[in-house]
Amino acid sequence: MQEESGKGSGKPSPKRPAKASAKSLNGKTGRQAQRRTNKKPRTNKERRSNKQRSESTRGALISAARRLFVEKGYAETGTPEIVAAARVTRGALYHHFDDKADLFRATLREEARAVADHIERETQEAPSALEAMTRGADSYFAAMSVPGRVRLLLLDGPAVLGHAEMAEIDRETGGEELRQGLAYAMEKGALAPLPLEAMTSILSAAFDRAALAIAQGAPAEDYKAAIRRMLEGLLKRA
């Protein structure tokens, strides 16, 4: 009688929950499998669209950061300002960049690449090594005349990242036109054999100093003429 009373007490049998759980689990697994089966793979168009959105967000961050870095300087610019100016979320910033320094680094790469591309376009058809070098110098000053570029590449860049990393950025973005121009001039006999790295470093410093002076209001033509005369003294008209 006691056993019968236990059966009728309303307590569940130990086996019942197990059966119910298995049924519930099987049903859930079945639904998940069905959803996976019904899920359509992303099309090429969707993938391109996602990539474009990602590139657009990255570009907006770099553009906003550049403006603020030029206006306020690296140290005085905060990531909340950058995010607000770019009209993206903070999560988007850290999806594309590790931190503010990484975003600054990417901004400088864009600037250095723009300078290198401009010089390359202007020197492709030069008839002589001397002409290539003088055209390269003129194009460098033209590219560096873009507002804010001198501050980013010649002042804040070295101060924040150091000269070694700035040199690496220059190499990564194809900004070795001066070195290549000197090597070409030596190969053609227009320039006496000299230590290439040392010569590149000395001339590069001269170009940068001239660009800084011009950005600070010095007569641009005076510095351009001085650089041109220096190149003419070094290179033969060959």
Q: Could you explain the architecture of this structure?
A:
The chain has 238 residues and is mainly α. The chain has twelve helices and no strands. It has helices spanning 2-7, 15-38, 44-72, 79-86, 90-96, 100-123, 129-144, 149-161, 163-172, 177-187, 196-215, 220-234. The protein starts with a helix and ends with a helix. The relative contact order is 0.08.
Explain briefly what this protein structure is.
This protein is mostly helical.
Low-confidence stretches: 1-26
**C-alpha Rg, in Å?**
32 Å
Q: Structural class per helix/strand content? A: mainly alpha
Share in β-strands? under 5%
Total beta strand runs: 0
The shape, in one word, is elongated
Give the helices and strands, then pairings:
Blueprint: H1 2-7, H2 15-38, H3 44-72, H4 79-86, H5 90-96, H6 100-123, H7 129-144, H8 149-161, H9 163-172, H10 177-187, H11 196-215, H12 220-234
Structural descriptors:
12 helices, 238 residues, mainly alpha, single chain, 77% helix, 0% strand, disordered N terminus, elongated
